[in-house]
Amino acid sequence: MKKRLYQTSPYFNKEIQMYGCLFISLYYWSPVSHSYSELNAIWDSLKDAKAINSDCVIVDYAKVLSALGIDADYREGHWAPDTPVAENQFAVGEFYWKTAHFSPVSRNKKLIYDVKPDSSTIRYGTLRTLRIFTWRNK
Question: How far apart are CA 132 and CA 110, in angstroms?
Answer without folding.
Answer: 14
